[in-house]
Specification:
Chain lengths: 655, 413
């Protein structure tokens, strides 16, 4: 027995020795590897610097436009084709390789029109293309994609598109069993007309799309390469609704399983629960072909060998929907199960600020790009959207703007951003992203100032008359204490903490805030029925601004509209109407700034912060070499518009 | 053979003596006593209002007024504990005076009754005030004798004598700049040590734990109390009457038992909201099935005993036979199962909070555990409440099993 023990011990010792020798060899190998990587990075960085002039990416002219036509600057104008030519300059055909893996929530279905889910839209972003696109460099402009030209006429009411010739629809994997699907079908103007037909068909269940297209008058397809869309009236939202149109494979969605076309009146009803969607299929004319979709597990895409455009540098793309919770996702990311990911504020604090994960580079307050040095890269990125606390202006408590201003003075935005979101987020004063051309930079912030808040409340007649610690006021013969419920989404630890801080501040000026959290569905009901004194919310905004949905008085009294705080202002109404019919950028900017100034004065919302996140990716190999890592990420971060800097067009694999 | 001298003592006293002989039970009882003390005297141990204050206006005891300030201690159980804190010395002394005349059980009952009556009185409008009659426990402005005020006064060279609780931090206050401080670091606002660190809100973990003991004990007692009452009544009816009544009630009990409790609790809490009292109520309303079965069994066995037949032949009303004659004889197993029931409720509440269904406005240990899960690299957030839950639950179990040994007639040594 003892001999056995000794033998075992000896074996363990031997293994240890082997391990130690192996370890000691590693640094040498790593050193060589790191050197070559550093060299590569250095050249890359120099290359990038050479391309990006001082002043940042936003002022940079479009690189390498093949056609030098001054009209084609991407800014909408009448009578000429203004589309920026299709950009292939970033694409290197020899670099296409590997499988990009990402975490992405599994969608319920893949029909982007019916599903109204972000993932379904993302699937079509890979599989399909649209008529025109917003270039990642300048999202406020338009470039050609499936349309080689567009001419807008008739005072922005008629759009005439020329469709790129020679494009064919992808062949679905189902074609093995359905021979009629196997033959190549060319893309024509009719496929775009079919999308419009489905959106407008009263039987098709896509309310979220219908609102954008209700002002459409008619569309025509004089030939296979020409699409004419006519609108009833001049309205700015028609621009992105028309330019961003995606084709729908008429030959698939217009037919039953055997390829027999449906009669016209059945089309809409069949489209809602189409056999093609139920077979978990999706096709398009885009860069990737849907390979397989296992609900709640994975979706995989393979590069389309017949793709007409440039696209991304990956042979395959796999979306993992199995790892759902943030913490397991982070562990899986670190193990190389995903190539890029996003960190929650708490994870940012733990992994990077407190540097508990050595693979990330530590924070360097002086260098915002310090995160690029680690073997796992990280960088702070902006995203479009903002969060706020909305005050119900219909209630007696918040009808007076001085009370709302006092509330804004009592929210320590910077402290909350620093302590709850660990610095992620940018305090905002309006609903327009600070980096947008429409942002009014002259607004004066409601600084955190409890004395000012108390003074404003007193001015508005709120005093603690009965010594109960809560200020009150006599309204319509009744003493009303300034005590209110603030409703918010239940599964947000960050908002739990934000409101704990806010409540503490309000308590010192005699305002009683009671935070109440609700499940998402219940919160939606609360928004719709205006069942709140105050509510926390967030909006994802667009590059095109529109003040009608959120702030127009006609929306305030509509049930279920987005103007849930009941904001009414005749000047804003007039400006919002003007904005909808103004296409000239300079004039739009002026109108938008005036609206923001009025809203800022009225404070229907206490605008809180614009979203910021920590984007992480598999960077170079050192110190633990990984078989493949992402290259070109920093290039994208440097070159592209800050709100689009996570676009993957520059990414490729290095080994 | 029982000692003749001991037979003169009450059975409860005898049982307690047997419980005390077990080391585990002594440990459990000691931990429980410490926790009970911490829960009752939490405002004196952790808080930012001075216990004693002296300035130009003379001597004051600010804590006394703050204990009944609804804006400082707004929850009903807080009032109960605050009242108990003030009454406990008096009650203990009275109990000691009455030690020869009244039994232990009676004195404990009297104490509970006094606190409960006081609790009710505090909420009635009894005090004259500017706006009519107001309750003792009412909303008042925040106390002015706080740590911050004292620091300010000292900085301005004004003579202030102030004695603060040993942990000068309020349990529900997020201190600026004190987020995720490790144990023994100092709070940048007050300069005092954070003995167990601070959480992601900037709250002092130790202060939070002390007040969390109140929540945990309340949950255990209230939830188990509700379950015991429902279970006892239904079990008694079922066991005493038998026949169709028994058949019906037992089927209801089986239906309750078949429900996976946690899922039932989850769905009710999701519908009714995450209030700590809702959680107590739900735990009580779902946890009575076991008690009902236990009581039914005891009643079945007792209802054929001679004393019951005698009472019946005397023509006593049924409720009197059930609850005055049989129930005291069936109390032993009930007492044991209550001990385990309290432990179970505490654990379930922590579990609920851990999966994010706790009341974030209450200082519940489970809520802190839940936070620790997302801040796994800051282990004190998870160890501190984890150890507290472990200690409470295992002490209850130790005492429970000792009680079970002691009260079981076959096990009497």
């Amino acid at each position: 027995m003892d001999k056995l023990k000794v033998a075992l011990l000896a074996l363990v010792a031997l293994l240890l020795v082997v391990q130690i020798i192996d370890r000691s060899r590693e640094p040498a190998q790593l050193g060589a590897l790191k050197q070559s990587v550093d060299q590569l990075n250095e050249t890359l960085r120099r290359g990038v610097v050479a391309q990006v002039p001082a002043g940042g990416a936003t002022q940079q002219p479009v690189a390498q436009a093949p056609v030098k036509d001054p009209a084609r600057d991407g800014n909408p104008k009448l009578g000429v084709n203004f589309l920026i030519p299709y950009d292939r300059s970033y694409f290197r055909a020899d670099q296409v390789k590997g499988t990009l893996r990402l975490f992405e929530e599994s969608p319920k279905g893949l029909n982007w029109m019916i599903e109204n889910s972000a993932t379904a839209a993302d699937v079509h972003g890979l599989v399909n293309d649209s008529l025109c696109d917003r270039p990642a460099l300048h999202p406020e402009q338009w470039s050609e994609v499936l349309a080689t030209a567009v001419v807008i006429s008739d005072d922005y009411k008629t759009y005439t598109f020329t469709i790129r010739p020679g494009i064919t629809w992808q062949v679905p994997t189902l074609a093995k069993d359905m021979p009629w699907l196997a033959k190549p079908v060319p893309l024509t103007a009719g496929d775009f007309a079919f999308t419009l037909q489905m959106i407008r068909d009263p039987q098709v269940e896509c309310p979220q799309l219908k609102v954008y297209y209700e002002d459409i008058d008619r569309w025509e397809t004089p030939d296979d390469q020409t699409l004419i869309v006519r609108w009833k009236r001049k309205v700015y939202t028609s621009l992105s609704a028309t330019m961003g149109l995606m084709p729908t494979p008429r030959h698939v969605y217009g037919s039953d399983r055997d390829g027999t076309p449906y009669p016209g009146e059945q089309l809409g009803a069949q489209f809602n629960k189409h056999w093609f969607d139920q077979a978990r299929q999706a096709i398009g004319v885009g860069n990737y072909v849907l390979e397989a979709w296992e609900p709640d597990k994975t979706i995989s895409f393979r590069r389309n060998p017949d793709y007409w455009g440039a696209g991304q540098h990956f042979e395959r793309i796999e979306w993992d929907g199995e790892v759902k919770q943030p913490d397991p996702q982070l562990v899986a990311f670190k193990n190389g199960q995903a190539h890029s990911h996003g960190l929650r504020p708490g994870q940012y604090k733990s992994e990077i600020l407190d540097h508990n994960e050595r693979q990330f580079a530590a924070l360097d307050p002086k260098d915002p790009k310090a995160g690029r040095a680690g073997s796992l890269g990280w960088e702070r990125v902006k995203s479009i959207g903002f969060s706020y606390i909305g005050w119900n202006m219909r209630t007696q408590l918040f009808a007076d703007k001085r009370v709302r201003q006092a509330m804004s003075h009592a929210l320590p935005k910077q402290r909350v951003i620093d302590e709850v979101f660990f610095g992620l987020g940018e305090p905002i004063l309006s609903d327009v992203h600070p980096s947008s051309q429409y942002a009014n930079k002259e607004l004066k912030a409601y600084d955190f100032d409890l004395a000012r808040a108390r003074a404003l409340l007193e001015e508005a007649g709120w005093r603690d008359s009965d010594g109960d610690g809560v200020v009150d006021k006599e309204i319509a013969g009744e003493r009303l204490p300034l005590s209110f419920k603030l409703k918010y989404y239940a599964n947000s630890a960050e908002w739990d903490r934000t409101l704990a801080i806010f409540r503490e501040q309000l308590r010192t000026i005699g305002v009683d805030l009671q935070a109440q959290s609700f499940e998402w569905k219940e919160l939606l009901r609360i928004y719709e029925e205006r069942d709140f004194d105050a509510v926390v919310g967030a909006w994802r905004t667009d590059f095109d601004i529109d003040y009608f949905q959120l702030w127009h008085s006609s929306e305030a009294d509509k049930p279920e509209s987005s103007n849930h705080c009941g904001f009414k202002n005749p000047r804003v109404d007039q400006l919002a109407d003007d904005l909808r019919t103004t296409f000239d950028t300079a004039k739009r900017v002026a109108i938008a700034k005036e609206i923001q100034a009025i809203i800022h004065e009225e404070q229907p919302y206490t605008f809180f912060k614009a979203s910021e996140g920590i984007f992480v990716w598999q960077n170079h190999g050192a110190p633990s070499p990984r078989p493949r890592w992402l290259d070109g990420v920093t290039e994208a971060l440097d070159k592209l518009h800050p709100l689009r800097s996570r676009s993957s067009q520059y990414w490729r694999f290095k080994e | 053979m029982p000692d003749t001298a001991m037979t003169l003592q009450s059975p409860l006293r005898l049982a307690l003596r047997r419980v005390w002989r077990q080391g585990g039970a002594r440990f459990g009882a000691a931990v429980l006593a410490i926790m009970l003390f911490a829960a009752v005297y939490a405002p004196f141990l952790a808080g930012d209002v001075a216990l004693v204050w002296r300035d130009a206006d003379g001597w004051r005891l600010p804590i006394l007024s703050d204990l009944f300030n609804k804006s400082s201690y707004g929850k009903h159980h807080d009032l109960l504990f605050n009242l108990a804190a003030l009454l406990l010395p008096v009650l203990l002394f009275t109990g000691w005076l009455l030690r020869r005349r009244w039994t232990l059980a009676r004195r404990i009952l009297l104490g509970c009754l006094v606190v409960a009556v006081g609790w009710g009185l505090c909420q009635l409008p009894l005090l004259p005030s500017a706006k009519g009659w107001s309750a003792i426990w009412s909303l008042r402005g925040p106390a002015t004798e706080t740590v911050a005020v004292a620091t300010e006064a000292r900085a301005a060279d004004r003579a202030v004598i102030a004695v603060f609780p040993p942990v000068p931090h309020r349990f529900d206050r997020p201190y600026a700049g004190a987020v995720l401080r490790a144990p023994l670091e100092r709070n940048p606002v007050t300069g005092a040590r954070l003995w167990l660190g601070s959480d992601a809100n900037g709250k002092d973990v130790l202060a939070y734990l002390l007040f969390g003991a109140r929540i945990s004990l309340t949950i255990g007692l209230v939830a188990t109390g509700i379950a015991m009452v429902i279970g006892t009544i239904l079990g008694a009816i079922s066991g005493y009457f038998g026949g169709k009544t028994d058949l019906l009630i037992q089927r209801v009990v089986e239906i309750m038992m078949c429900f996976p409790t946690l899922i039932l609790v989850l769905s009710i809490v999701a519908i009714l909201g995450r209030d700590i009292f809702v959680i107590m109520l739900v735990l009580g309303l779902t946890g009575w099935a076991g008690t009902a079965r236990l009581v039914r069994g005891e009643f079945l066995a007792q209802s054929v005993r001679d004393y019951v037949l005698a009472a019946e032949s005397l023509g006593l009303p049924r409720w009197r036979i059930m609850f005055r004659h049989i129930l005291p004889n069936a109390l032993t197993p009930l007492l044991i199962s209550a001990t385990f029931g309290i432990a179970g409720s505490v654990l379930t509440e922590s579990g609920l909070a851990f999966i994010g269904l706790g009341d974030i406005n209450a200082a519940s240990w489970g809520v802190l555990l839940d936070q620790g899960r997302s801040f796994i690299r800051y282990p004190w957030i998870i160890y501190a409440p984890g150890i507290a839950v472990f200690l409470l639950v295992s002490s209850l179990n130790l005492v429970g099993s000792a009680l079970s040994d002691a009260l079981n007639p076959k096990g009497a040594r």
